[in-house]
Design a protein that fits this description.
Blueprint: H1 5-32, H2 47-73, H3 81-109, H4 116-151
């Protein structure tokens, strides 16, 4: 969807913020035994370093893997742009959730060395269902809508990074 370097940077920051905020709120609610109004501010305590981690990991690993897998499986000229967008979001979560769960395990959970892998795997298993749903049904559509408003971009003009094609 974003086409220029500046647009990609703004999009990345917005998406990182939306995903970090949502996942941190989710994890805070899990720790508290349920969601409460007071928890809506809790994610801001750790948001900046987590956004930096998301942007770095997405640029180095997550985005590249998602792009490669999406366009290896799909011919963007033959499928609707929405399908390309869904695949990109799903593969980004598929890559980023284990990576960010690793960051969370190191930074927040700090388990004993003998339990590290078990805690990390449990963190991934707990976070992945929420991450994929949050990405596909809330954060992704919201961030794309904001990006379209900011840059007056067409709706799904070619998927996330796919080639543009004329609509029938």
């Amino acid at each position: 969807m974003p086409t220029t370097f500046r647009q990609r940077c703004v999009f990345s920051v917005l998406m990182a913020f939306a995903m970090v905020y949502g996942m941190e709120l989710y994890n805070q609610a899990l720790l508290a035994g349920g969601l409460s109004t007071r928890l809506f501010l809790a994610p801001f305590a750790d948001i900046l370093p987590l956004i930096a981690a998301v942007i770095a990991l997405e640029a180095l690993v997550g985005g590249r893997v998602a792009h490669r897998l999406t366009f290896r499986l799909l011919d963007a000229t033959k499928v609707p742009p929405l399908i390309v967008t869904v695949f990109m979001g799903a593969f980004t979560c598929w890559t980023m959730c284990p990576l960010m769960s690793l960051v969370a395990t190191v930074a927040f959970k700090q388990p004993p060395a003998g339990e590290f892998v078990a805690v990390w795997v449990q963190t991934v298993a707990t976070n992945f269902p929420m991450a994929i749903c949050w990405q596909l049904f809330a954060a992704g559509p919201a961030v794309r809508a904001v990006a379209r408003m900011l840059y007056r971009l067409p709706v799904l003009a070619g998927g996330e990074d796919g080639p543009r094609r004329a609509r029938p």
